[in-house]
What we know:
With 379 residues, the protein is α+β, with helices and mostly antiparallel strands. The protein has 2 domains: 7-112 and 263-376, Beta-lactamase (3-Layer(aba) Sandwich); 119-244, DD-peptidase/beta-lactamase superfamily (Beta-lactamase, 3-Layer(aba) Sandwich), CATH 3.40.710.10. It is built from 13 helices and 12 strands. The protein has helices at residues 7-21, 76-86, 119-131, 155-162, 169-178, 182-192, 195-204, 216-224, 237-243, 247-259, 267-279, 285-295, 359-376, and strands spanning 45-47, 90-97, 102-106, 112-113, 140-143, 165-168, 264-265, 314-321, 324-325, 328-329, 332-339, 345-354. The protein has a 6-stranded antiparallel beta sheet, with helices on both faces. The chain has a two-stranded antiparallel sheet with strand order 4-7. A two-stranded antiparallel ribbon has the order 5-6. A hairpin with a 5-residue loop joins strand 11 (332-339) and strand 12. Helix 1 (7-21) packs antiparallel against helix 13 (359-376), helix 2 (76-86) runs antiparallel to helix 13 and helix 3 (119-131) packs parallel to helix 6. It is globular. It starts with 6 loop residues before the first helix and ends with a helix. Keywords: Signal. InterPro entries: Beta-lactam/transpept-like, Beta-lactam_cat, Beta-lactam_class-A. Pfam families: Beta-lactamase2. GO terms for molecular function: beta-lactamase activity.
Amino acid sequence: xxxxxxxxxxxxxxxxxxxxxxxxxxxxxxxxxxxxxxxxxxxxxxxxxxxxxxxxxxxxxxxxxxxxxxxxxxxxxxxxxxxxxxxxxxxxxxxxxxxxxxxxxxxxxxxxxxxxxxxxxxxxxxxxxxxxxxxxxxxxxxxxxxxxxxxxxxxxxxxxxxxxxxxxxxxxxxxxxxxxxxxxxxxxxxxxxxxxxxxxxxxxxxxxxxxxxxxxxxxxxxxxxxxxxxxxxxxxxxxxxxxxxxxxxxxxxxxxxxxxxxxxxxxxxxxxxxxxxxxxxxxxxxxxxxxxxxxxxxxxxxxxxxxxxxxxxxxxxxxxxxxxxxxxxxxxxxxxxxxxxxxxxxxxxxxxxxxxxxxxxxxxxxxxxxxxxxxxxxx
Length: 379
C-alpha cells in the first residue's frame, strides 16, 4: 500500500525520524564533526543556461510567463536545505528543472558512491553504440557461470541450472535497469568494450564529474578489502570471505572507498546528464525514448523518491545501494526524472554517501525531497 503525504507533513516526518534516531543510541547518527558540515545559508541555487528544451512541457498560454522557468519557486530552496542539514551522514541533493533554466543543490559538486546508479551509464554507452551502428539491440550475448558476479543477480539461477544462457542486448538492458541485475550489467559492459568504453562515452558527451568503476566484481571486492575470486559468485561465499577478514582490513578498504570512490559522481553532474537525456541531446530520438521507457519500469526503490510524488505525477529512475559496514551504508541513492501532470519535468538526485540512518529514515528523506518538488511546482 502506498500512502501519499503533503510536502509539509513529509518534512515533519523527516524531522521526527531524525529526533528518534538520536534517542536509540550513538551508533544511529554519524558525528557531525566527521560527516556533516556545520549549517550554512541555503546558497545552493544557481542558474545554468542549458538551451531550449528539445521536448518541452505543455507551454503556458500566450502572454503568460511561467514563474518557475528561470528560477526555483520561492521556498523550495529553503525546504531542500533544511532536509539536507538535518539528515545524518554525507548527503548530496540536486534538483534541476529540465524544461527551464535553474538547478539547486546541496553538496552538489562533491563525489558520492554511485553503486548501481552507474548501470545507467552502461546502458547509455550501449545505446550510443547502437546509434553509431556498432551494436544492435538484437545481438545475442552468452552468459556462463564464469560470467556471474555477486549480490543481486536473478539471472544466476538460470545460468547455473542451464549451464549457459543467451540473451539479447535488449533483454540485458531491461534486466540490468529494471531489476538492477549485476550479471546482466556486467554482460552488457563486456559486450560494449569494458569500463574504458563507458569512460570514453562519459568524456565524449562531456558529462562532467561522473566516474565509472572497474565493473561489479572488482568494485565490490575492492570495497570490502578482498581480491576477487570467481568462487565468490556462488551463494554467500563473498559474504563469508568478507566476514573472515580482520576488521582493520575492512575498515581501511571502506575508508579508502569513501574518501575517493572509484565510481563517484556529483549529484549536479547526474542531474545535468538526466536533463540532457530527457531533452534528447545524448542519444538518438529512438534510443532516448527506449531508455526512458525502460527506466519507467524500474522495480527497485519503490519507496524512495517515487513514493513522495502525489497521484498524477510520473517518475522514471535508477537506484543504487552499497555495502554495509557496522551499520553504515556506503551509497544509498535514487536518481530520476519526475513529470508533473502538466508535463513539466524535473531531474531529482539524492545520494547518501555514508549514513547510519535507518532505511525507513532514508526513504522518508527521499520522499520529502521529491514531495517538496511537487508541492512547490507551479508556485
